[in-house]
Amino acid sequence: xxxxxxxxxxxxxxxxxxxxxxxxxxxxxxxxxxxxxxxxxxxxxxxxxxxxxxxxxxxxxxxxxxxxxxxxxxxxxxxxxxxxxxxxxxxxxxxxxxxxxxxxxxxxxxxxxxxxxxxxxxxxxxxxxxxxxxxxxxxxxxxxxxxxxxxxxxxxxxxxxxxxxxxxxxxxxxxxxxxxxxxxxxxxxxxxxxxxxxxxxxxxxxxxxxxxxxxxxxxxxxxxxxxxxxxxxxxxxxxxxxxxxxxxxxxxxxxxxxxxxxxxxxxxxxxxxxxxxxxxxxxxxxxxxxxxxxxxxxxxxxxxxxxxxxxxxxxxxxxxxxxxxxxxxxxxxxxxxxxxxxxx
Amino acid sequence: xxxxxxxxxxxxxxxxxxxxxxxxxxxxxxxxxxxxxxxxxxxxxxxxxxxxxxxxxxxxxxxxxxxxxxxxxxxxxxxxxxxxxxxxxxxxxxxxxxxxxxxxxxxxxxxxxxxxxxxxxxxxxxxxxxxxxxxxxxxxxxxxxxxxxxxxxxxxxxxxxxxxxxxxxxxxxxxxxxxxxxxxxxxxxxxxxxxxxxxxxxxxxxxxxxxxxxxxxxxxxxxxxxxxxxxxxxxxxxxxxxxxxxxxxxxxxxxxxxxxxxxxxxxxxxxxxxxxxxxxxxxxxxxxxxxxxxxxxxxxxxxxxxxxxxxxxxxxxxxxxxxxxxxxxxxxxxxxxxxxxxxx
DNA sequence: CTGTTAGCGCCTTCAC
DNA sequence: GTGAAGGCGCTAACAG
Lengths: 344, 344
Prior knowledge:
The structure is a homodimer.
Chain A: H1 3-10, H2 14-22, H3 29-42, H4 48-55, E1 60-65, H5 75-90, E2 94-99, H6 104-115, E3 121-125, H7 132-140, E4 144-147, E5 158-161, H8 163-176, E6 182-186, H9 192-207, E7 217-219, H10 224-235, E8 243-246, H11 249-261, E9 271-273, E10 290-292, H12 295-310, E11 319-322, E12 325-327
Parallel strand pairs in A: 1-2, 1-3, 3-4, 4-5, 5-11, 6-7, 6-8, 8-9
Antiparallel strand pairs in A: 10-12
Helix pairs in contact in A: 1-2, 1-3, 5-12, 8-9, 10-11
Chain A binds a DNA duplex through residues 2-4, 12-16, 18-19, 22, 26-28, 31, 46-56.
């Protein structure tokens, strides 16, 4: 059922039908009613292909998940994608999804979306400190919004969670429990939030007069496995930490496993703190102390921001930083008499 | 840069340029070379909007994740979506993603995609025994493929994992370890795989001469929370099970938590088995015995199937059932002397 | 108030 | 080997 067919049924011109349905006020109420009724009855739906060619807009937004398949156990991205997709649909936009591990292939995906004119805008997730994607999109002048800030020189809308605040309150929490050797199971250095978090951690240490010790920092790639390995390394130090601050819940779960393997108890011998408050965090043993981020709300807000941007809003006015909230559970507890024995 | 502009640059007609680029052989090699070079140099890319209107195809495939935002911690869907998206792109198709909890809103999403002509085909995930979505798509004649079978009367391509086999070998494993009271932390009854799995479980019991006891079956909704609750109920039976077979890893994690809370040890007092082999399964304490499904490969294969279907392949020829593999870890072990004491 | 006309960018008969 | 013309479905400027 096309506009033309509908018009023929009604003995009207295509134009009139189009305008009647679009709600123009230069069409008589009688005609409009007749058109509406017929459209309803015959199940007319405008063909988006025609509308899109006409308007030059694809009515689609792109999202490239920055992880290779097989390494995306992170529900974070699913929540983000789903909430984005849902809210975008309310704005009449489709969400087009692909994935690619950071690197040349990832940039190729962006070029495909942008230069192949497959989307009107883009959402960038998990920003990096120096972010090629942002530089590219800014240069091309494509509307885009980011989950996370970046030091890449460009002005763009973003939502971020204040990782500095997060790690500061988490470290303060541990310090209050008596911990003075707090290991960091850190995220990759290239990620933008890594720096904010480290600096929050540092602030808490300084305020408590605890010396800065780089041997207490180990890096992982946000997977359980990498958290496990990083924790292993930290726990085998001569003077091991009594607490582990981890950059996400997955690494915290890996870290707890390492603690267990060392014959110690998370929350008793070694405290462990995560980040994200995934649903699973309530069900680990012991349940995980962690920082809660509002993922779902962020997705919806990012969708709104992108629409506002495309409608001409200023990027400067579309920048938000939210505070994470510390959720204390059993995996963090008072420091034990002395530091725990190293494993083995 | 449009075809017309490119043609003008070359002093050629649009037709010739179009055909030169499309590889028709009725264009001279010299012209073709000239056209190719200019297209390259000027960065010509065909506008998909024009192609789509012309061909009547949207070049997009829809996926509606059957879960409300906030309840989709299931990395399964992310893996599926990402692997689908990547492979579809190789076929020149975009993946359009939304989500909706099963129910009227979900059907509305499908209608939006299909009747709104926003996609050429659809992927249905987590099929249900009687599946409205399948009935709808079959009736509309839209090309679609499913992850999972269904009893809904329709012939369609699918990939499924043999849950009957899975739960049978898992139950056999537990029986070999001496368990005779094996509780089921089951998935929702409306899901198609639930029945296959229960029947595999039943077969194993029968083969071992263990009587069927419906009080050992509790239902959850695949979240940790529901697994926790179901396990609580089972463990508070007068004669509690010594092993818990769970329909996915999340519920298994919830179940292990319940076991712990009852002062018992997963893998010692009560064995726990999951399903999916999520990355996290290696890092729980104890690590989780579970059934491994090839999710990533399934996504890619589903994309291929859908393309084949749209190219005229018979649906009957596109139906595959894969075998899951039992991965034995520490959460399952020999039955303890007697049944464990109920908690509290 | 309604209809005619044109054009978005592409592809594909058909004619030369 | 190449060009002209038409049309996919829609909207909007412009007449009447």
